[in-house]
Amino acid sequence: MSAALLELDRVGRTFGGVRAVHDVSLKIQEGEIVGLIGPNGAGKTTLINAITGVPPPTSRRLRYRGTAIGHKKPNHIAALGLARTFQVVQPFPDMTVLENVMAGSLFAGGSASMADARDAAREQLEFTGLAPLADRPASKLTLANRKRLELAKSLAMRPKLLLLDEVNAGLNSAEVNQALELIGKIRARGITILIIEHLLKVVLTLCPRIVVLHHGELIADDAANDVVRDPKVIEAYLGSKFAERYGARHG
Amino acid sequence: MIYLQYAANGIILGGLYACIAVGFSLTWGVLNIINILHGAFIVLGCYITYFAHQLFGIHPFVSLPLAGLMVGILGYATQAGIINRVVGQSVLVTLTLTFGLDLIFNNALILGFTANYRQVVLANPLGTVEVAGIFIPLDRALAMVLALLLTFGLYIVLQMSRLGRAIVAVRFDREAASLMGVNVMRTYAITFAIGAFMAGAAGSLLSVVFPIAPITGHLFLSKAFVICVLGGIGSVPGAAIGGIALGLLESFSASIVGPELALTVAFVVLIALLAVRPQGIMGREDMH
Amino acid sequence: MRRNFLILLIGLIVLAPVPFLTDTYVLRLGTTALMYVSLSLAWNMIGGFAGYPSFGMAAFFGLGAYASGILQVNGFAGPVGWIGAGLVGLAFALALGAVVLRLRGHAFAIATLVVAEVLKEITNAWNSLTGGGMGLNMPYQKMDPIAGARIYFYAMLACATISLAATILVAGSKLGFALRTIKQNEDAASMVGVNTTTAKVIAFALSGALGALVGGVYTSWINFIEPADVYDPLFSIKPIVMVLLGGSGTVFGPVLGAAAFLLLDEIVWRNFLETHTGILGLVIVLLILFLPKGLGSLSWPRLLQRSAR
Q1: Residue of chain B whose Cα is closest to the Cα of C240
Q2: Does a structural domain hold residue B51?
Q3: Using H for helix, E for strand and C for coil, what is the string for C65-113?
Q4: ipTM greater than cut 0.90
Q5: Does some domain include residue C8?
Q6: C51 interfacial to chain A (CB closer than 8 Å)
């Protein structure tokens, strides 16, 4: 069997004794797009944080393309080709849109000079449709465009694996559709994606495979259609009463 | 046996340090402001006590409330009139502002009282007692007891009173406290005044222990910082424990490297602690 | 970057003949100005570019002054002392930076403030090397006063040139870009691959080396140093105020800020000898309260509008 692109082996993260993520084992193969879902507070963002090293996991068995990364610093992990977006967008507010994206290409995307980085950044701005806003300060963008900027910045890092944290949160349905289209285009470039998503509709459209986190533990990892029928998942999402009723009707 | 003597000296010193640090720590924790003036407040407290003793023969421990109150009122005015205008701005802005104020105060102290070192020489010192081979200077020991009582008193006020609850509420969530009817700006000014009161009172107590001049203000400020890092910011018990830890450290290290390198030793220990704990001793700082 | 170097070159051409056109009084002023220009640029590396509020310039200045002084007392020539000072400052800043740059915000600021206090204590205690509280006299050199004044003007001009050239290079480089991202959002910077630790330590080391170099030249210029003088916290606060005045994180802001500040200082100093520091404090307070973004924020139309209201 070929080595997975990303492999988590019993990864955990505790905060002052509280287990936010516990014993999560997971493999992501090159070229996949995997949905990561779970109720609020399930530990989804904590898991992505642990993968990218801020803050690092408390149990560190993480391998990316066969190399252990559990002890590496965030900037090393980024340089290896593992990029992420933040649920709460994290732009460099007083820098322009172009400069924000340049940061990605300059420090993790392998651009040799400032001029190269600028060219690479312009390319990503074209790709994400932000080109007309290149010279605007990042703080002046709308939420939808700031989410886009997060994507452009991550893409400028030339990632092999992209971790998307709630890229659609707070967007209206037209904006969601545009974002979906963009994610499709990223997929077409051959980039592997792990996506945290609140909207089940979006996950089901995008992801053949879904993993479910609940109370910090992995409770399901299966084909999308099976996962949504899994009683454990339904219970996690909707509570036990609903699961019983749902089970009675469909069982 | 000599070690017990060092320990006793260290604890006496540490009690005074706790009193120095607790006000500084409170201001830092609640207002998120480093008060460079804290050192000048201590010096002012010391000078008030010194002149009360010199001119009217008032015993330092009697003039302590007066010194605390006068410095406290000055603190209230400073915060309400000036520092409140920059609360919430960047470290650089708030720190530079209190630095500027410190220059003004220092200059005023030198103009008013000259740059001379002052120390109260008591007319009727209590002397020294020997307990199981340990010598205890009674005036200093009494100063320490008063310092710890003041620190404990502050703890009680913060824990029990309405004012204390308002201060704690503002510290944790300024917006929420404001919605619940707490006057945030006034609470800031009162908190700063309490910090200044503690500094003035500490200066009063220190006047019988150390010679103090305007130039020593920054030394006390540095010590207050070290104590805060050792004990945790904004916590009264933390300042007490950190103060006693620093007192012990100084007392023991003085026997090895001499008392003139006290701050250096404390700082080296601090740096060593930081080096082994990469996340920083004060992980909480990141949460602001 | 090319344009910036051109401005630097023009500045040098304008300043080069100054020592032969003026008297010692003006030369002393000019040397002081160049010293503060250098210190402001040095502070701007870590405080302006990286946004780390260092209050430690006095520590590097004093350390450099003593390194240079000790070398000269032991028979080395002035310029050897200056370079030695720069190297000592560099080494000290690297070691110190590796630890204190883990702190952020207030804790970093006050930790750097304490460093000068600590070095002062060590200098006072280490009598055999530093002369302790009595200070250190430089070896006597037979020199015409005006020739000496010219030499130190040029020496400080060299410091300022090195500082400005370093600033221009950093501002236009990958390092400068990394520092800007750190200033804006350090966690996000490390997520896009910036090695934040390395970038910060380099900036701090450059800042420290430049500060110490200036301190080293100061020793030769003044001929006598003592702990309370060279570790004076004013050496920490003045460069900050100058940079804030001229524009933090810019290339020429610190230069303009230092010039504007010293102009003010000169007027104040002449008239109020005893209350000089107090009035300096007042100026700082007023500046922070009314002009927090520096002189650049003085927009005349807006001011007129305000006064019209």
Answers
A1: B96
A2: yes
A3: HHHHHHHHHCCCCHHHHHHHHHHHHHHHHHHHHHHHCCCCHHHHHHHHH
A4: no
A5: no
A6: no
